[in-house]
Amino acid sequence: MKVAELTRMPKVLGAGLGTDDGFIIDSQFTVGYDAEKSAAMAARVVNRIKTSLGVEKASAILYTRNNVFFIKETDAGIYFVICQKDANLGLIKIKIDKLT
Amino acid sequence: MSDDLTMDSGALIFATLADVYLSSGMIDEAISILQDGLSRNPTYSLAKVILGRAYYIKGDIEESLKVLEGNYEELKGSENTNLYIGHCYKKLGEFEKAVEYYNITLKINPENKDANQELKVLVREPKQVVTEKSEEVAKPVAKDEEEVVEESAVTATVDHAAVEIAPPLGTQEVVEVQPEPVAEELKKVAAEPKPPSVKEIPEPAREEKFEPTPEPVAKAEVQKAPESAEAVREIEQPVVQEEQKEEVISEPPAVKETVAQEREKVEVGEPPVDIFPLEALEQPIKRLLNMKAVKGAFICSKDGLLIQNYYEECRDIELISAMIAAIHNEAEESFKFLKDGSVEKFIIDKIEYPICVITAGESLLTVVTQPEAKPGLVFVYARKIIEEIREILG
Q1: Which among B337, B343, B348 is the nearest to A64, CB-wise?
Q2: Inter-chain contact B334–A41, Cβ cutoff 8 Å?
Q3: How far is B369 from chain A (nearest CA, A)?
Q4: Is B207 helix (H, G, I), strand (E, B) or coil?
Q5: Model confidence over B77-114: pLDDT tens digits?
Q6: Average confidence score pLDDT of chain B
Q7: Contact (CB<8Å) A34/B324
Q8: B110 touches chain A (CB under 8 A)
Q9: Could you tell me the domains of chain A?
C-alpha cells in the first residue's frame, strides 16, 4: 500500500520494500526494471553504509546517468525507489520520509 | 579638443583605456585597442593622436608620423599632435622640421613646457648638433664625461617638462636627448642652475610603471663617471648607432630589471604556469567550504586513498575516505548488476552530518555538511567546482 503511494508520483519508475538481506517484501515497478535486483542492491548498499559509517539506520540517494535511487532503511525494512533523473527528488524524499 | 564633444561614449572608453595601457607601458595592447577603436570610430581625432603617441613611445617613428601627419589636416589644431610630430622629426634628426612643429605647438599653447624645452635645446645647439656628430667619435673620454654631465642635466630638464606636459613620454625623452654638444656649450650648461632633481618631481602615479623610479638613480650613476670602459665606449659610438647606445645609457641593467619586474607586476593576473595540481584544487574547494552548511570536504581516489583533506575536524579522515570509497564501489557494482550505468553522485543521510559524494574522474569529492544543509545547494556548488577538479585530477 505504501509502495503504491510512492509509484503514483510522476517520473517514479518503481518502488519497493525489501529486507536487509535483499529479499522483496512488496514492490511496484514499470516494465524493464527488476524489483528483486533492486532490492538486493538496496540491501547491499545499506549494509555497506551501516558497517562503514556505523549508522543505525542507513539512508542514501544514488545518482546514475539516467536514474536516481532512493534507499531508506526503516523498522519495516528497506524502502527503495527508482525514478528518472529529472523527477522531483525533493518531493519523493519527503514522501519516503513520511511513509517511514 | 572640440571633437571630444562629438564622439560617442564607446570611443571615449577605448581611448581612455588605451591611454591607461600606454601609461602602464602596455604599448602593444594600447595600439591594438586604438586600431580596433578607430576602425569603428574613424573620425575620432583624439584616438589618432594617442595612436601616434603610442607608436612614438614604441619607437616606431615612421608609423607615428604616418598617423599624425596623415591626419594632420584634422589634427593640426591639437597641441599634442604638433608636439609629437616635433618629437618624431627630432628623433629622425630633422631638427628644422622639429623646430617648426614645436613652434606651432607654442602658438597653440605658449606655455607648453615640453615644446619650450625642446626648442631651447635645439636652438641652443643649432647646427652644431649635426656637424659635431661626425667628430664625436674621436672625442677623448674626459669630454665624454662632461657630455654625460650635460646629458643628465638636459634629460632631467626634459623629464621635468615631460612629467608636466606629456607624462607617458618621460622615458622616451630621455632616450632622444641630443648628445654631443660642444665642450664650451657643455660647460655653460653645466654651470647653469640645474632643474630640480627628478626625485623631487612629484610624478603622477600612472607614470611610475612606464618610467621606473630607479632610472634617475641610474642616470646619477652615469653622471658621476662612466665606470667601465664599455660605458665610455657606448657614449663614444658614432651618430649612426646613437639611438641604440643611448638606450643602453638610459636603460642600465638595474633599470631593465625594474622594467621586467614592473611587467611582471602587470602580468600578476595570469595564473602561474607550473602550479602543482593539488595546489590548484585549493581554490575551487575553498569556495565550497565557504558555505555555512559545509563542515568539511575531502578528495579521495576510488580505491579509498586520501588525496586531499579539507576537513580538519575529522581525525579518522583516512578511514572515512576508505569507507566512502567502499560505499561507492559497492553501489557501482550494484548498478552494474542492474545494468543501470555507474554512480555519478550519492547522498548518505547520516543524522549528525549528511554526506554528499560526487565522482570526479577517478576521484571522489566528499562534502560533509551540517544536518540542516540543503543537499541540492551543495550539489549545485559542487557541480560547478567538480568540473574544475575533473580537469585537475583527470
Answers
A1: B343
A2: yes
A3: 14
A4: helix
A5: 888 888 888 888 888 888 888 888 888 888 888 888 88
A6: 66
A7: no
A8: no
A9: 3-97 (3.30.450.30)
The three three-digit cell numbers of residue B388, written as one number: 574544475
* Cα-to-chain-centroid distance, residue B99: 33
What's the CA gap between B123 and B116, in Å, rounded? 10
| Residue A31, C-alpha cell as written in the block | 516494465
- Is there a contact between A63 and B344 if contact means CB atoms under 8 Å apart? yes
Note whether A90 and B375 are within 8 A (CB).
no
Residue B338: which of A41, A48, A55 has the nearest Cβ?
A: A41
Give the Å distances, CA to CA, from B163 to B49, B193, B198, B211.
Answer: 18, 19, 10, 10
Q: CB distance from B346 to chain A under 8 Å?
A: yes
What distance in Å separates the CA atoms of residue A87 and residue A96, rounded to the nearest whole number?
14
According to DSSP, the residues that pair with B118 across neighbouring strands are none
Assess B175–A contact: CB distance below 8 Å, yes or no: no
Phi, psi for residue B364 in degrees, rounded to 5 = -120, 125
**Which position has the higher pLDDT, B234 or B68?**
B68
For residue B209, CA distances in Å to A82, B25, B60, B203, B264 come to 63, 7, 20, 11, 11
| Chain A interface, Cβ < 8 Å to B | 34, 37-38, 40-41, 44-45, 48-49, 52-53, 55, 58-67, 72, 89-90
Cβ–Cβ gap B337/A45 under 8 Å: no
Q: What is the pLDDT of residues B158-205, one digit of tens each?
A: 444 443 444 444 334 444 444 444 444 444 544 544 444 444 444 443
d(CA B389, CA B377): 18
Contact B376 A40 (CB under 8 A): no
Contact at 8 Å (CB) between B106 and B116?
yes
Q: What share of chain B in percent tops pLDDT 70?
A: 54
Residue A16's pLDDT band (cuts 50, 70, 90): very high
**How far apart (Å, rounded) are the C-alpha atoms in residues B391 and B376?**
23
Read off the pLDDT of residues B126-140 as tens digits, 9 standing for 90 and up. 555 555 444 444 444
Nine-digit cell string for B117: 624645452
Q: How confident is the model at residue A81 (pLDDT cuts 50, 70, 90)?
A: very high
This prediction has a pTM of: 0.41
Contact B348 A49 (CB under 8 A): yes
Is A53–B340 a contact, with Cβ atoms under 8 angstroms apart?
Answer: no
Amino acid sitting at position B149: V
